[in-house]
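Section 4.2 – Deliverable D4.2 (structural model, holo form)

The reporting period included a commitment to supply a predicted holo structure for the target in complex with NAP. Inputs used:
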Amino acid sequence: MRIFLTGATGFIGTAITAELIHHGHQVLGLTRSDAGAEALLAAGAEVFRGDLQDLDSLRRGAAAADAVIHTAFNHDFSQFVANCEADRQAIEALGSALAGSQRPLVITSGTGMGAPAPGMPASEEHFNPHHPNPRKASELAGVSVAGRGVNVSVVRLPQVHDTFKQGLISPLIEVARAKGVSAYVGDGQNRWPGAHVSDVARLYRLAVERAQAGSRYHAVAETGIAMRQIAEVIARGLHIPAVSITADAAPAHFGWLGDFVGRDLPASAQRTQQLLDWQPRGPGLIADLEAMHYRPD
Ligand SMILES: NC(=O)c1ccc[n+]([C@@H]2O[C@H](COP(=O)([O-])OP(=O)(O)OC[C@H]3O[C@@H](n4cnc5c(N)ncnc54)[C@H](OP(=O)(O)O)[C@@H]3O)[C@@H](O)[C@H]2O)c1
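Output (structure tokens):
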């Protein structure tokens, strides 16, 4: 297939590009920069110039492809709500170019959207349209375009990692470095799920190849790693102490991450493994954090 990939220059998109090309697909990668275009050409992809803000460019990219995978997102968390709304519009635009065809659209969300109740593992069957996280806009847009006949499926992500980047744990490491302590909230037994970026890329490929309309997949290799364990491995890497702080102190200590750090967010991938015959193979989160090179300041 010729696949229009938004976010093709990003952490996960780079791995998806390699995975798709390795399996015989053509990648038409969205980029807004010369550096992005160079990286895409070096990876063996075609370059498609456009921008998330330019919805017409998204429609044209989707119209030129057999399938679309959407991973682009503006990660400026100071404008998170606006960025989630922009994602809704991007998905609506991509969907409008695919409506009336069976060409698949795979969109991106987070595993937190599938939590049935606090502390219970998120599952593929659940979606809370009233979730307090504004990122629900992405899945609501998926529901909306599905209603117009688009073959859409959702890949929900946990903390995606290798030895260089680890989702929200990367900015957490920067907080620890700046504060001189690696903190967790309370007893630190709240959990975050994880998956290696290579496993995540393979899951996107399987999802777009399977083109199963209405599916929700969890790219989860590890159901939940305790935040205390994460804080302790960061502490060892930075040669600083691991400390507990109260939930009340979290916003001041972690800044915008304070909203997330104390949350218990386990997630299951049982159904995904069955549906896609997907078995994670990559290293675990703690192994990647142990192998990471923590630069001295
Ligand atoms: N990484 C994780 O652990 C994780 C966890 C949960 C969900 N997710 C979601 O997974 C997706 C991919 O994440 P990632 O970690 O790969 O993100 P990333 O490394 O920050 O990459 C983001 C991508 O979006 C592109 N982008 C941003 N603003 C754009 C714009 N205005 N126009 C066109 N392209 C734009 C970037 O292009 P440039 O190269 O031009 O900047 C880049 O290719 C996102 O939806 C993210 O929210 C990730």
